[in-house]
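Appendix C reproduces, verbatim, an entry submitted by the partner laboratory led by Prof. M.T., so that reviewers can inspect both the input and the predicted structure.
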Amino acid sequence: MPGYDTHTRTLRFGEQDLRVRSLVDVQQYADPDGHAERAGISSAQWSLFGHVWPAGQLLAQAMAIEQVAGKRILELGCGLGLASLVLRQRGADITASDHHPLAEVFLAYNAALNDLQSVPFRTLQWDTPNPTLGDFDLIIGSDILYERDHARQVADLLTRHARASSQVLIADPGRGNSAGFTRALKAQGFASSETRDRLDPDDIPPFRGRLLRYRRD
């Protein structure tokens, strides 16, 4: 990737290995064509999409064993798209989405790196309706509730794109915005449950990682 330092490592999710190219650190920033300004992304946040984050790994591990046959799946704020790549490995009907201009580039590279067919990608801003996106049986995301407004934005998006019978699965590192999100989804008829898991090898019970599950039948 011109202008960026990257490295490639192998991660294991379920029974499958996944090779992933990511940025070497959060200082990576090159935007000669002004994509950041047009997308409304600050230089401090620009590189965040391009890292392997603990919540992203937690979601990818969940997708390695999730029942996905016959489901149309959407990943929100995919970043590097670990979960989408795992689902592609499993032959699932997955669409990845993000609003970062480089997310699609890294996702396509990592799919090719693993000899996978490309993952369908949509540029998506949560607060902007997109009637061409369609609806989904399962909508997933990792660490997408990191600002207070995001809980409302994602909940509103679900009213547009979650099927009447659907599931939502969010891997959350415990930033404190999930309670409002859960209330919003309960108002939409979703039942909720939560399980805890490690975010890193040093994490001890009660683990910081949360898998937030919502189901509407």
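The helical segments are 35-39, 54-63, 82-89, 103-113, 148-161, 178-187. Additional entries are available on request from the coordinating office.
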